[in-house]
Amino acid sequence: MFPEHPELSIAIPSTTELLKMVVELSRHIATINQFSPLEAQKIALAIDEAITNVIKHSYKGKITEDIKLEFYSAPDGLKIKIVFTGVPPVLGQPGVDLDKFIKEKKKGGLGVELMRRIMDSVQYKTVGNINTCEMVKLKKLQKSTA
Amino acid sequence: MKSFYIRSKVQEDTAVLYPKGHLDAHNVDRFEKEMLKLIASKVVNIIINCKELNYISSAGMGIIMGYLDEIREKGGDIKLCCVDERVYEIFDLVGFTEIYDFLDSEETAVAKFKV
User: Fold this and answer.
1) Higher pLDDT, A136 or B11
2) CA within 20 to 30 Å of A66's CA: A49, B11, B55, B85, which one?
3) In this complex, do A48 and B62 lie within 8 Å of one another by their Cβ atoms?
4) What order of strands is seen across the sheet that includes strand A8-13?
5) Where residue A18 sits, what CATH number does that domain have?
6) B83 lies in a domain?
């Protein structure tokens, strides 16, 4: 369904300073792929969350590492691949107990859940020292008005 | 160039936070600092007026979540108002709309604290 090679590939240093730029770029790409402004904003947020996690957890805040971001467009949707090294991500089970998080005064733990709720699929894999986060968002079928 | 601004005002026993712009992991420390300033000054009725907030990631939501228990233990609460549709959608995605009061105006939020 998705092409073998990305339409757009960029490499950014692992700094949170560039998150806004990534969000704006991602929103733009989602919009030109015919996602609504609201859906485009959510896709951009999922990408922000994935990159923030890479910076915080895989690179432990080190700002000199690289993160590669690839966008693959298809008529049915958009695939985003984030490639990085560092510590392989360890994901919890889907679902969050917000009441429990509040009682525990947790300030984190919502990012991956947001990614899962926004995207149709979120998959992480590690091969050798290369980690990949692959996310897919499918376009919703428009109901016929005929 | 800064993409996020935060200011607050305190009137009687209620404080209003005014986040503006793009709130993400890069600038969340400033949001947390402002929240901590209010808690340290013993103000526990907190309204977050999101009128000029056009983006929030889980980093910003984490601050709203992380201090709620402490604030409620002290007899206060956090209420949100004037939230843009796109930002509201994000709060709703993780269930914040079931935990917090979301109100249409700052005046309504202030009034809710007086009930």
Assistant:
1) A136
2) B55
3) no
4) A8-13, A66-74, A77-84, A130-138, A121-127
5) 3.30.565.10
6) yes
Q: Chain B contacts of A113, Cβ < 8 Å?
A: 94
CATH assignment of the domain containing B77? 3.30.750.24
Residue A67 lies in a domain: yes
Look up the ipTM and state it: 0.94
* Chain A residues within an 8 Å CB radius of B99: 98-99, 102
The chain A residues in contact with chain B (CB within 8 A) are 16-17, 19-20, 23, 37-38, 41-42, 45, 48-49, 52, 55-56, 96, 98-99, 101-103, 105-111, 113-114, 117-118
Measured distance CA(A43)–CA(A33) in Å, rounded: 12
Question: Model pTM?
Answer: 0.95
Q: Take residue A110 and report the two structure tokens written for it.
A: 């919502």
Mean predicted lDDT score pLDDT of chain B: 96
* Contact (Cβ atoms closer than 8 angstroms) between residue B106 and residue B49: yes
Region A71-93: what's the mean pLDDT? Answer: 95
Q: Tokens 């800064």 — which residue? A: B2
Name the residue type at position A35: F
